[in-house]
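My current task is to audit a protein record that another person submitted. I have pasted the whole thing underneath without changing anything:
***
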Amino acid sequence: MRPSTRPAEEICNPSMSFHHRLNSYALAASAAGVSLLALAQPSEARIVYTPTHHVIADGGSYKLDLNHDGVTDLSFQNMFQTGSCTSACSYVEQLVTRLAAKNEVVYNVFGAVAMKAGMRIGPKRAFHPGLEMMATIGTHTSRGPDGSWINVKNRYLGIKFEINGETHYGWARMSVQVQLPFTLTATLTGYAYETVPNRSIVAGQTIGAEQNYGSIGEPEAGLSAPGAKPATLGLLAAGAPALSIWRRE
């Protein structure tokens, strides 16, 4: 049987239609890839997180410099006071935060709020400057221990402060333990702030991605984005129209 006499060029060169399909696929995939890269550009947001471990015991205090510029943004004070002893002496132990300049903290009727991980700290929150009570125990109140920081673990103080005249948001993570009658101990375990002015931060957030809240706590309902479906090879080959479908899904 005689060997095939098929022309050499027909064997070495793929058909024009195959070339056309290959080029079309490459162009479509390239265009889709560029679009995906554009979607994946990192946000300009940058979270500066500082882990620490500082115990503020009875009579202790701590000055907090959120952005490490050498300026105290707020301080924590654990104060023990003796009141009048005319008939019976009164005693009070208080944990307070004292804000510098125009800085403020998230507050409510009980004083500075012990926020949970995942809660947003930003312009829509109620803030207050000056001196805010966090926790208090003593004989001055018949209700016993008072304030939202009584026996809490890994809660967040929401902070609004200024850097070069611009407003920034941050948080300080603390645990507070109360032992009757007059022992109150606070432990600062970390703090962070958003470098972009006027941009909110989430309590516990340690990097720019909003879904990350460090190793402690989960985002509050509604804050985490739904998981995105990966683009299939077919969608990439189909180009921009299919990419639009992928985005909607």
Helices lie at 8-12, 16-39, 233-238, 240-248. The chain is about 20% helix and 35% strand. Residues 74 and 99 are 4 Å apart (CA to CA). The two ends are 59 Å apart (CA to CA).
